[in-house]
Amino acid sequence: MPYSFTLPNIRKEAAALWHLAWPVLIGQLATVGMGVADVAMTGHTSAAELAAVSLGASVWSIILVTVNGTMMAVNTVVAHQVGAGAFDRIPHSVRQALWKAVGVGIVAALAANLATLLFDHLQLEPEVNARASMFVHIVSVGLLPFAAYRALYGYSASINQTKPVMVIALIGLAVNIAVNWLLVFGNLGFPKMGALGCAVATGAVVWLDLLAIVVWIRISSAYRASYPFDKWEWPHWPEVWNMLKLGVPIGVTYFAEVSVFGAVSLLVARFGVVTVSAHQIALNFSSLTFMVPLSFGIGMIARVGQALGEGNPQRARFASFVGLWMSTGFAVLSALFIALFRHQIAAAYTSDVAVQEMCAHLLLFAALFQLSDAMQVAASCAIRGYKVTRGPMVIQLIAFWGVALPVGCVLGLAPQWLPFAPAEPMSATGFWIGLVLGLTVAAVLLTAYLQRLSRQRAMQPASVAK
Fold it and tell me: What membrane topology was assigned to this protein in its record (predicted)?
């Protein structure tokens, strides 16, 4: 059935996407809120504790987001099965995704602990180095349960059940804030752990999330037609391998982006506690606004995948571009908000005047990349709905490791062996200019890729496009 871009059709698709996305949005905001709480609460202890959380969270975020991307294969697989009405095949796919999660979680935990060796080469103050390393060691115990949780999260979202993950995330945020209050500041007789208290809280919440979603799936009637826990099943390696082939490029795509942001955080550390703290606050708030287009994107995977599963590539194309427009529209509003209220945002995070001023300056660049960031995540999620992951991976690698980081290093560090480097290092400002350019390249290339892919599939017979 062809879909024309008329106002009634757009409203209908936008409403359907919003129905899926708004619980995901609240859940994502709650998840990011944990990071906001960590930074904000340690920001009111000392600059050294804030720097430790900033550096430790940089490594944690890189690994966490890569795991998240790698596990997202289940979203696409289940969405296609839903569209095809093959609910009997879903339990097997979910069980295999959980086996995949075990391997991914173990590898991720090892990688996180090894990554702390990088701190020894960043000219950090010894106290900050030790606290940041211990933060990662503690929080890494949550990576295996996180991988399993994301497998069940993807299954739930792809059968149009997004409200459970919202409720679970909100509970997790409340628990995280409460445990932070006890352990970061040492209230009610608990030890004052500072940055390490944040790590304990985060690790505990991840285990709580996994337990909560398992219980929810077990007791809710919405999962009866595709209930995955009715029997034990050993790994089926061809199925696990197929999910890895689909998921690893997504994980690399996520890694390409978040690792550049993390690498910038590590490189900025050499410019002192004020700079690294301001950078982390600006990045943290940008991550908060990014959750809106990301939530649209997660909903788009389900909408596009279900349309293709039912053999309707025209509806898949239509859903892709409605979601892209919605993400872009929000980005315009968030850019204006950040530009207008950047000083108030900085003050909400820290009472340090020097950090506030630096942060307000960096938030101007955060406002600039809102549009391109929203476009690239929406386009990449729509492409994943087509079960295409390698093309976006290449584009992201080029945009972030070929453009954003090299440009940032040249401008931020000003290596004098390069004839075109600036005379003086631009510090964090130079790195943020690189991020703006990298995101712009990603947005342009991914949108063009989506346009070409969706047009090709829409012109194919339904049996081929599926």
Answer: Multi-pass membrane protein
Number of domains in the chain: 1
Q: 338 is written with which tokens?
A: 């950040």
Q: Is 189 left (phi over 0), alpha (psi -120 to 50) or beta?
A: left
Please list, in sequence order, all residues whose beta carbon lies within 8 angstroms of the beta carbon of residue 387, skipping any fewer than 6 positions away.
76, 80, 246, 305, 308
Q: Which amino acid, residue 350?
A: T
Considering just the CA atoms, what is the radius of gyration of the chain in Å? 22
Show the domain range for 440.
7-465
Q: What is the DSSP string of 313-355?
A: HHHHHHHHHHHHHHHHHHHHHHHHHHHHSHHHHHHHH---HHH
Prediction pTM value: 0.82
Q: What is the mean pLDDT of residues 270-281?
A: 85
**pLDDT tens-digit readout, 49-102:** 777 777 787 788 788 889 999 999 999 999 999 988 888 899 999 999 999 999
Please compute the mean of the pLDDT values over residues 141-169 and round it to a whole number: 92
* Percent of the chain topping pLDDT 90: 50
Is 1 within a domain?
no
Q: Model confidence over 187-226: pLDDT tens digits?
A: 888 878 777 888 888 889 999 999 999 999 999 999 999 9
Q: What crossing angle do the helices spanning 47-71 and 7-43 adopt, rounded to 10°?
A: 140
pLDDT in tens, 171-185: 999 998 998 888 878
Rounded-to-integer distance, Cα 64 and Cα 17, Å: 26
462: tokens are: 């339904």
CA distance 394 to 45: 42
For residue 179, give the 3-state DSSP assignment.
Answer: helix
Six-digit token pair at 442? 């990603």
Interatomic CA distance for residues 334 and 371, integer angstroms? 9
Q: Per-residue pLDDT for 462 more than 70? A: no
Share of the chain above pLDDT 70, in %: 95
The whole-angstrom separation of Cα 75 and Cα 345 is 34
| Nearest-angstrom CA–CA distance, 27 and 161 | 13
What pLDDT digit, counting tens, does each position of 299-323 carry? 999 999 999 998 889 999 999 999 9
Tell me which residue of 58, 288, 351 sits closest to 195, measured CA to CA.
58
The reply to whether 135 falls in a domain is yes
Q: How far is Cα 256 from Cα 396, in angstroms, rounded to an integer?
A: 6
Whether 2 is in a domain gets the answer no
In this structure, are residues 43 and 50 in contact, taking their beta carbons and an 8 Å threshold? yes
